[in-house]
User: Fold Integrase catalytic domain-containing protein from Methylobacterium bullatum.
Amino acid sequence: MGSVGAAYDNAMAEGFFSILKCESLARRRFRSQAEARMACFRYIEGFYNPLCRHSALSYRSCFVYEQETQSDPLPETQLHQAP
Assistant:
């Protein structure tokens, strides 16, 4: 990620794993590692990415942010024009 000792690089990842642990995994026991992985996947793809808003993304969800920042390919006419 960033330079050694830069606390801000790790803050978002630490915050995410804290939320995941508290909201999804803390009160459950899993029969297998596959079941635990599936629970994590369902939480991330079914709740966190589409619904949770983040201040770092101007209070948009991860899903909305990705949709807004995907770049469309240039039309064929703009590819061959000189600036």
Summary: The first strand starts at residue 53 and ends at 54. The chain has four helices and two strands. The two ends are 35 Å apart (CA to CA). Helices lie at 7-25, 33-51, 62-69, 76-79.
